[in-house]
Amino acid sequence: MTISDTELIRLIREGCEKTLTMLYQSYWPQAKAFAKQNSGREEDAEEIYQDAVMLFYEKVNASDFVVSGAMGGFLMQIFRYKWIKHITRQKPETSLEEWHSSIEMEDNDTLPPNFEHIVANIQNLSERCQDLLAAFYYRHWNMEQIAKHYAYSNTDVAKTAKYKCLQKLKSLLNQDSTQTPEKHGA
To answer: What domain count does the chain have?
Structure first.
């Protein structure tokens, strides 16, 4: 049985548990698949999905709630946000220090002369930017993988996020070079 979003909201606001259960069951497979594709365990996904459904329920019952899209999409948006928040709280796969120390070179001349300066400025970026740049440059993830991992709506949004992180890094490097009398050679 398919019901409109307006009817769904009405039934939820009237306290119809069957409607909330139906919604829960309808989107659980999608949430579970998203979690598995993004470094997750089913147990964690189920707990976070339950939290997402409860937040969805609270939002729908709020007096200022306005329908602005498909309710299933709204539920999944809440879940994806909560999921990304969950996995970013966990220990990252590779810390920036591990990334830096894993670069083993036989000849240090192959590193750019300002390598240490670049690494120091990377550490001034937000954790999300550090992780996104590490995912692209170190883990060699493509934009589709990055979009899924960070719950971006598509690869263009992922590219824009990466571009903004790089621009922030360039800004930090330029800002630092204008404040430092020496050039970052030797």
So the answer is: 2
Helix (H, G, I), strand (E, B) or coil at 130: helix
Instruction: Share the mean pLDDT of the chain.
Output: 78
108-135 pLDDT, tens digit each: 444 455 666 777 788 888 888 988 888 8
* Same-domain pairing of 10 and 26: yes
For residues 34 and 7, give the distance between their C-alpha atoms in angstroms, rounded to a whole number: 27
φ/ψ region of 39 (left if φ > 0, alpha if ψ in -120 to 50, else beta) reads left
User: Which one of 89, 111, 144 terminates a domain?
Assistant: 89
Taking the whole predicted model, whether its pTM rises above 0.85 is answered as: no
146-168 burial: b if 16+ Cβ within 10 Å, else e? bbbbbbbeeeeebeebbeebbeb
